[in-house]
Amino acid sequence: MLIRSMAVFSFLLVLCACGQTGSGDSDTNTDTAETTTVSVANEDDAPVHLAIYESFEELEHIFNYQNDTTYVINFWATWCKPCVAELPYFDDLYKEYEQDKLKIILVSLDFPKQIETKLKPFIKNNKVLPEVKMLKDSDINRWGSKVSEEWDGAIPITLIYNKDKRLFVSGELHDYADLKDKVSPLL
After folding, report:
1. Interior angle at CA 30, CA 27 and CA 33, nearest 5
2. If you average pLDDT over each of 25-34, 46-55, 176-185, which comes out highest?
3. How far apart are CA 11 and CA 116, in angstroms?
4. Are 29 and 40 within 8 A, CB to CB?
5. Which residues contact 26 (CB under 8 A, 6 or more apart)?
6. pLDDT tens, position by position, 125-179
7. Long-range own/partner contacts, residues 29-34 (CB < 8 A, 24 or more apart)
């Protein structure tokens, strides 16, 4: 019963959050993604939200915000060993800069058929802190250059940007210090 109540409460929170509006200079958008809530094992922890996008065009807006926030966008998948190895660095960054104008978005390129069996359990079991968006559109050859002209389609990759600068990081980050060194100049 408690789990059902928490699920209803989480759903209502999502509905309320979706109805909020912001100024034109924020990252508020008109997401049309299907959003699911994955409850974590520890009842004291907040639920993790997973937004699922059918096409890159639905997600494209996250690469073009022009405000005073720095964005760290990482493309990863649960089947990618280097991707999974670096995910704790993004959790650490999230914790350290939670009160700053830094937004971390993890874009999963997991196989659509494995959302329920692999991706959701991974998010739940690892208590992933940053926002996770799942992109079902696997045609990187069509949309990859919109993320960065430098991207050859391999993951992991990380795009760090603000309204003035863009940094594309191809390949696995060495450690948390490596990620922080790349993000700090853009804060």
Report:
1. 110
2. 176-185
3. 18
4. no
5. 67
6. 999 999 999 999 999 999 999 999 999 999 999 999 999 999 999 999 999 999 9
7. 29/61, 29/62, 31/58, 32/58, 33/58, 33/59, 33/133
Strands 102-108 and 70-76 turn out to be parallel
The CATH label, of 3.30.930.10, 3.30.365.10, 3.40.50.360, 3.40.30.10, for the domain at 2-19+32-186 is 3.40.30.10
> Cα(166)–Cα(49) distance, rounded to whole angstroms?
27
Task: Compute the distance between CA of residue 62 and CA of residue 72 in angstroms, rounded to an integer.
Answer: 10
Q: Which residues pair with 36 in a beta bridge?
A: 50
Q: Which two tokens stand for residue 86?
A: 């670096």
- Pairwise pLDDT comparison (1 vs 153), residue with the higher score: 153
Interatomic CA distance for residues 61 and 78, integer angstroms: 24
Token pair for 10: 């989480």
